[in-house]
Amino acid sequence: MSYKLVCIDMDGTLLNNKKKISSYNKEMLQKAHDKGVHIVITTGRIFNNALHYSNLLGVKSPVIATNGAIIREKDKGVVIYKNALSTETCLRLLELSQKSGVKMHFYTTDRIFASSRLHGVALKLFMSLPLPKDLRLKIRYVGKKEEWEEVFNHHKDEFVKCIVFSPSRSTLKNFRKELAAFDDISITSSGSNNVEILNKDVSKGKAVEVLANYYGISRDEIMCIGDNENDIPMIKYAGLGVAVSNGIKELKDVADYITDTNDRDGVGKAIEKFIISK
Fold this sequence. Notes:
The chain has eleven helices and 14 strands. By secondary structure, the protein is of the alpha/beta class. The strands form three sheets. Strands 8-7-6-9-11-10 form a six-stranded mixed sheet, with helices on both faces. Strands 2-1-12-13-14 form a five-stranded parallel sheet. The protein has a three-stranded antiparallel sheet with strand order 3-4-5. A hairpin with a 5-residue loop joins strand 10 and strand 11. It comes from Clostridium manihotivorum.
C-alpha cells in the first residue's frame, strides 16, 4: 500500500522523553515528505505549539491541534475545520470543576486561560517561552466566577478545548462520571493526571477523516501513529494504525502494528518500514 497521509501524535510518540525530535525521526519524515506524503502533526496541544514542531520538521502540511478540534493550514492561515465548545458548556464545566476541586485550562488557538496561578506560571515557562516570539502563547490566570463569565463571553466560539488536572486518579474518575450529565461533549485523556473535554464528536479520528476528505485520500492510504487514549480514534480510522511500544495497552490492542518506543525512534522506524523502503 502506498500511504499518502501520515498523522503523528507528539507527546510520547514523535517527541522523546526529553521533548525533542530525534535526528533520525526528522530525517525519515522529511524523506517521506519529499516523496509527496502529507506529514501532519496531530496533537492535543494548542495550535501555536503544534505549529512550532511542524515547522521544525520542515513540512508544509496542515496541523491538527487540540485533539482534532481545529485543522489549520500552516502558511495561509486557512481554517479547514473548527469545532468549539459553547459558552453555556464552558460555564457548566467551570461550575463542575469548582465543585470538584480540580484545576482547569481553557484553550483557544493561541491563548490559555488557567484557574491556577501556579499552572499559569508553568505554562509560560514550559509551553510558551520555548516557542519563537511570534508563536508565543497568551496565558492568563482567571480566578473569580465573574471573571470567567467575562472571558467566556468575550471569546465566544473560540474555546476548542478544556483540560482538567488533578493528582488524584479517584478525583478524575469521579469527575468523568459527573460529565455523563453533559450531552454535547466528548471526553478523552492524554495522561493519567488529566481529562480533556471537547465539543461533541470531536476526536483525532474525526479530524483525520475530515483532512483525508479535503485531500481526496482514502482510509487505506492513511497511516496514524500514537501512544495514548486520545490517539485511539485515529488509530482505529487509519488504514495502518501504529502504536509506539511505550503506548497504553488499550491503544496497542487496536493497532495494526507496534513499533519501537518514542525514545528509540519508533516513529522513524515505522516510516522507514512502511514508506521509505517501499
